[in-house]
Write a structure and sequence with these properties.
The protein starts with a helix and ends in an 8-residue tail after the last helix. About 40% of the residues are buried. The chain is of the alpha/beta class and about 575 residues long. About 55% of the residues lie in helices and about 10% in strands. It contains 22 helices and 16 strands.
């Protein structure tokens, strides 16, 4: 049980006796107070409204009197050293030496599990979770939207795994449809075997651009593309062999790029898998009397509840061919049968919100109650992400740009001479910059990308997180202390030390927020604040030149900070560096 839990439980036990309410219901109402730079504060608070039922934002006139009456009945003890009233709240201050001892020891004992063993997660279902993310279209641009989907999906998968879920990471490729008809026809005219093997994504993209242009001017190429797709859909072995090669080469290339991002997938699925299974879905819909024909001749499912088609989902084109939603219905049903998941999370841009709303509603109408466990995490657009060469075509371009710009910054800061692998470090720091710029705000918001702002080593950036982590590692290495045993908590009583300890008490609450809304901003902003507090402590609490007892206590504190900082960064998908 983490330190914050122990303290909440002691506070809850006392309030429980006074109010006659169960401890368990009180625990979640007791929260750690965010650190204030202006003045020292207490550690925990309980809003009186959460135990009396009066609204938190509009306390009754007698709330303050009620708060005071409750405070008068509570007593300080060996754990709680001070109890006071705030605005409609009771504040609790923990014994300062106990606070230092408990937090530092807990982080050392729990390691990466610190914050995740909290009783705040005791009721959290830990079942099987599928996260479908990234999902680029083969032969088309790997848009910045795919980068967002990749890093957001990776964060959600990391978070769910840390919370004890059994996670399957799934990449649902756009690997079917007219683009393959064009590619099949185009390869005969513009393809080169060597180029395909050397750089499949680039070569297929080039062919796609060329054949698209050519098909506008030459009807025979357009006809050849339709003919190739017809053969593909008809199961022609030669066409399928060509398609399979394009797909395999592309996946090999994707895996190489994902590795640079620190991202992996358990399965590369795709629309092609469900091409045949769409007929089963249509039959199911017909059997249940759900598939109707619209005025335009399309196959639709009524979502109005009134039977008037005022709200409906189009499932089949008027010519009988399937749509994206038909394949998604087949995929969802197949995954339930294959993985028996409890939760399935789709990570795509916000333009697909209506699509997923319709998908989940149609599944429910089909009698798939498990659709309640399906969730769409939408995100906004990134504007202005360009490389020095111009528009971004592939994810590789973004990673190369982040690495080269960061390397340039590191060279001008004259720190690279100490590094064994400056390029590898620049890649990790550059990626941290991309991730933090992306994760700082609500995922649904569009944002303007800015290389200069993202790569600053001061302020709220991924570079600052990496810099703080590396700086504290360096401090530890150069101290020469090695393995530390016990420490004297009375040596960690300065305001800068207390602020860090108080901030560490909140970590489980922050993780809890992110686990509820799947937004990384809570963890990002928590780690940025931790880094700012650590920077201040680094200046004011020197290790070098202090007595051994003080130096050891401070080293314990700084090790605690970089442990939590590093673990939080890994959840976000950032590989922490220990030198930069």
């Amino acid at each position: 049980m983490m330190a914050a839990c122990q303290f909440r439980r002691v506070i809850a036990a006392q309030i429980s006796k006074v109010l006659g309410q169960p401890e368990e219901t009180l625990i979640k109402s007791i929260s750690a107070i965010p650190v204030s730079r202006k003045q020292p504060s207490s550690d925990f608070q309980l809003f009186i409204s959460s135990v009396t039922g009066s609204p938190h934002d509009f306390p009754r006139p007698d709330t303050q009197a009620e708060t005071q009456r409750l405070v008068d009945k509570l007593q300080c003890d060996a754990v709680v050293s001070e109890i006071s009233t705030g605005h409609g709240a009771i504040n609790f201050k923990i014994n300062r030496e106990l606070l230092a001892k408990a937090v530092v020891q807990q982080v050392a004992e729990d390691g990466p599990a610190y914050g995740f063993r909290s009783e705040l997660f005791s009721g959290l279902p830990k079942g099987k979770t599928i996260v479908e993310f990234s999902s680029p279209n083969i032969a088309k641009r790997f848009h910045v939207g795919h980068l967002r989907s990749t890093i957001i999906g990776n964060f959600i998968a990391n978070l769910k795994e840390a919370l004890g879920c059994q996670v399957t990471r799934l990449n649902y490729l756009g690997d079917w449809g007219m683009q393959f008809g064009l590619l099949g026809a185009g390869f005969q005219n513009f393809g080169h075997e060597e180029k395909l093997k050397a750089n499949p994504l680039q070569h297929l993209f080039d062919i796609y651009v060329q054949v698209n242009k050519a098909s506008e001017e030459d009807e025979s190429i357009k006809n050849a593309a339709h003919e190739f797709l017809r053969k593909l859909e008809g199961g022609d072995s030669q066409a399928l062999a060509i398609w399979q090669r394009f797909r395999d080469f592309s996946i090999t290339e994707y895996i190489r790029t994902y590795k640079r991002l620190g991202v992996h997938f358990d399965e590369f699925s795709g629309e092609s898998f469900y091409q045949q299974k769409t007929q089963d879905v249509l039959q199911l819909l017909r059997n249940k009397g759900l598939l109707r024909t619209s005025v335009k001749g399309t196959g639709v499912v009524d979502l109005s509840g009134q039977g008037d088609l005022s709200s409906h989902a189009t499932i089949v084109r008027s010519n009988g061919t399937s749509l994206y939603i038909t394949r998604d219905l087949a995929a969802a049903i197949d995954r339930k049968s294959k993985y028996d998941f409890d939760t399935m999370i789709y990570v795509t841009d916000k333009s697909q919100q209506t699509h997923f709303q319709h998908l989940f509603e149609v599944l429910r109408l089909m009698g798939c109650d498990w659709a309640d466990g399906c969730r769409h995490v939408p995100f906004g657009l990134v504007k202005g992400m360009k490389t020095r060469k111009g528009e971004v075509v592939f994810l590789e371009d973004v990673l190369d740009e982040a690495r080269s710009r960061m390397l340039q910054n590191m060279i001008s800061a004259k720190t690279t001479k100490e590094l064994e692998d400056p390029e590898g470090t620049a890649e990790k720091v550059g990626l941290a910059a991309l991730i933090v710029q992306d994760f700082k705000g609500p995922l649904l918001s569009d944002y303007q990308f800015d290389w200069d702002r993202a790569l600053q080593n001061r302020g709220d950036t991924g570079v600052f997180l990496q810099y703080t982590h590396a700086r504290l590692h360096s401090l530890d290495r150069m101290s020469g202390y090695g393995e530390l045993n016990d420490f004297n908590p009375s040596c960690l009583q300065e305001p800068q030390a207390i602020s860090i300890l108080q901030h560490l008490l909140r970590y489980d609450e922050v993780i809890n927020k992110s686990s509820e809304d799947l937004q990384p901003k809570h963890i990002v902003n928590y780690l940025l604040t931790l880094s700012h507090l650590a920077a201040l402590a680094h200046k004011t609490l020197p290790v070098k030149g202090s007595t051994q007892e003080v130096a050891e206590a401070r080293l314990h504190l700084f090790r605690t900070v970089y442990s939590v900082l590093g673990n939080g960064m890994r959840i976000l998908g950032i590989a922490p560096v220990s030198k930069m």
